[in-house]
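A.,

Following up on our hallway conversation. Structure tokens first:
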């Protein structure tokens, strides 16, 4: 992973400053508004995607392991607490992929892939070692029909349960069941590596 110099310097300074607490950094890239937080070398970065597919709101998530130990993260480890008290948990990748394969129309697939790639490839602060681009290439190499290629590319987007060794990073889309509405105001809580990463969403 390669974080932008400014974001990295700020994150390192905040982490190392005596008595300082890690702070959320906000920035825009590829038309998306990101929030990122680093704790003990682990960086979590996300943005809500402007596109909604069927009943889901979608977050683009990127995680980098700069710690000396292996970490793991599942979509279900992301919980969104709405201000009205509703609690939404990330949907397991297998459920999302099955639904995409069975029910997502061609236009759904095109919108999802186009929006995700626009955000990912415009994100200068992050380079994934084992994320969407690698999953997409593997999926397309194994599929022959054009229709299945589109479905495979879309399913490659879903954030899968991941184990990251030191120096590794990954990305993917985390889906929340919202009847197709935005997540709205609330707080995103991500639990990994024995740490809790909290982000306020206005």
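Then the amino acids I'd put at each of the 202 positions:
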């Amino acid at each position: 992973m390669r974080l932008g110099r400014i974001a990295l310097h700020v994150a390192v300074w905040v982490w190392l400053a005596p008595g300082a607490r890690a702070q959320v950094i906000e920035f825009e890239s590829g038309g998306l508004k990101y929030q990122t937080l680093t704790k003990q070398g682990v960086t979590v970065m996300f943005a809500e995607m402007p596109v909604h597919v069927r009943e889901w709101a979608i977050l683009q998530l990127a995680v980098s392991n700069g710690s000396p130990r292996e970490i793991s993260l599942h979509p279900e480890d992301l919980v969104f607490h709405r201000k009205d008290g509703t609690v939404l948990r990330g949907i397991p990748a297998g459920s999302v992929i099955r639904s995409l394969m069975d029910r997502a129309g061609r236009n759904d697939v095109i919108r999802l892939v186009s929006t995700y790639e626009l955000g990912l490839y415009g994100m200068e602060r992050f380079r994934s070692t084992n994320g969407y681009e690698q999953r997409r290439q593997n999926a397309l190499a194994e599929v022959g029909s054009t229709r299945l290629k589109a479905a495979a590319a879309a399913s490659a987007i879903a954030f899968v349960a991941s184990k990251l060794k030191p120096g590794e990073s990954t990305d993917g889309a985390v889906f929340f069941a919202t009847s197709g509405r935005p997540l709205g105001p609330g707080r995103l809580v991500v639990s990994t590596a024995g740490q809790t990463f909290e982000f306020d969403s206005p």
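The helical segments are 5-16, 93-103, 106-121, 132-141, 146-157. Curious whether your intuition agrees with the design.

B.
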